Amino acid sequence: MKVSKGTDYALHAMAYLVSQNGKRDKLPVQELAGKLDVSSTYLSKILARLVKQKYIVATSGAKGGYSLPADWEDISVYDIIVAIDGELTLFEDSFNHGDECKIQRLMMEVEADMIEGFKKKSVEELI
């Protein structure tokens, strides 16, 4: 499975926020971008999607930044992937044979297993 660069950044940002949980109140986007060695402008756009889904909290102002919500332990890796890339399918059956196509059934079964695996992995497991 190939995830987008945005999802990669989001997962790494979440991992850093989790690793700093309890040590720091809020992390400025510039600090996060510096730790990840990425553009703060692009990272801001990615973080805005996570804020919209309530997977992180944004606080504006001079001492503002990003932090984890109270229920952050309930956030799965799959939640982050969907927040950034949406629900994507990995396989398209070009021949559209329907349910009798063994190839399509196999691919869909494996994809379902992978999705279930991501759903079972908490963001806490990223660190």
Automatic annotation (TrEMBL):
Gene3D superfamilies with a match to the protein in the record: Winged helix-like DNA-binding domain superfamily/Winged helix DNA-binding domain
Any one of the GO CC terms: cytosol
Organism name: Salinicoccus halodurans
GO molecular function, a single term: DNA-binding transcription factor activity
Signal sequence annotation: none
Name of the protein this chain belongs to: Rrf2 family transcriptional regulator
InterPro entries with a match to the protein in the record: Tscrpt_reg_Rrf2, WH-like_DNA-bd_sf, WH_DNA-bd_sf
